[in-house]
Amino acid sequence: xxxxxxxxxxxxxxxxxxxxxxxxxxxxxxxxxxxxxxxxxxxxxxxxxxxxxxxxxxxxxxxxxxxxxxxxxxxxxxxxxxxxxxxxxxxxxxxxxxxxxxxxxxxxxxxxxxxxxxxxxxxxxxxxxxxxxxxxxxxxxxxxxxxxxxxxxxxxxxxxxxxxxxxxxxxxxxxxxxxxxxxxxxxxxxxxxxxxxxxxxxxxxxxxxxxxxxxxxxxxxxxxxxxxxxxxxxxxxxxxxxxxxxxxxxxxxxxxxxxxxxxxxxxxxxxxxxxxxxxxxxxxxxxxxxxxxxxxxxxxxxxxxxxxxxxxxxxxxxxxxxxxxxxxxxxxxxxxxxxxxxxx
Length: 344
Ligand SMILES: Cc1cc2nc3c(=O)[nH]c(=O)nc-3n(C[C@H](O)[C@H](O)[C@H](O)COP(=O)(O)OP(=O)(O)OC[C@H]3O[C@@H](n4cnc5c(N)ncnc54)[C@H](O)[C@@H]3O)c2cc1C
What we know:
The protein is α+β, with helices and mostly antiparallel strands. Helix content is 31%, strand content 25%. It is globular, with a radius of gyration of 21 Å. 27% of the residues are buried. Flavin-adenine dinucleotide (FAD) is lined by residues 153-154, 182-186, 205-207, 240, 280-283, 305, 307-313. Flavin-adenine dinucleotide binds next to β11 and β15.
């Protein structure tokens, strides 16, 4: 993938030496047994992701913001072996999926250039037409229910004599009964601060929008050979992709934007100017499972981060799990697999 001009994977070479320990741990997780462990325990939470959102959506008006039209992954005849592997793992886990012929893909999404040979349809997948609008509605609900929000930068975490977290920010100092570190890829700075070495890093990803073209697609599609996706959304067609290993401080890579734009035009030659070039940081552990649970050293400090490519999907269920964990309630889930202790 690294040597393919159209491929999704890239490196910022100045960051490679810093990432070597992460790569070694990642490679150790590439056995079939470990991969199945990850698949099983991602499935455990993914299976509950939509019902957890449904509970929240009962309390806000999401009309026009969420579509229930499934998602299509498609591919050419190249690398069919890895396609078979993915399909079989999902079958084993009981994921609802339908194989599609090229003809069927064309019937569902007639505007995509017919470069594909076959694909798969996940009918129960949903997509958000504007995630920010949904989050703002949830945020208002949180405030209405008595939640309190402060936007401050957490600099240090210390502990009182009875082990309560003392959070020092750029503006203030607070003492809490319990605290959760949920700072995505930025969490590592704080976990290092409390002396726990968690191999959290980031998979940088990009998106661009094409305005006025969302009539070209009905649902999200992913072209697996080139590892990118396109979703019809309120701001236009959103083209998303790239896994770039380069840490949190490197600048945006213009080449990755060009790659996304070219890939989008490969599927839809009629696309013209793009806008809104965005770089985001997926928080990633080398076994591709999130960290959720109490910290190793402090019983009143909890973690919830490392949801890699699926942090938006898993937001509601992660919140529920963390709330139950902190309240000492049973979840009927095996949560030990998400503990940070797996890295000690
Ligand atoms: C291109 C791209 C496409 C994606 N597409 C999808 C998708 O389709 N579906 C999906 O489910 N996921 C997707 N993701 C992944 C998703 O965006 C992440 O998994 C998710 O954002 C992680 O959420 P988080 O809340 O843990 O971290 P973040 O969203 O990174 O939020 C962390 C927050 O912590 C704050 N913070 C950091 N440090 C501090 C500090 N010291 N003090 C105070 N606050 C701090 C930050 O300001 C930020 O607000 C995508 C990611 C990318 C890059």
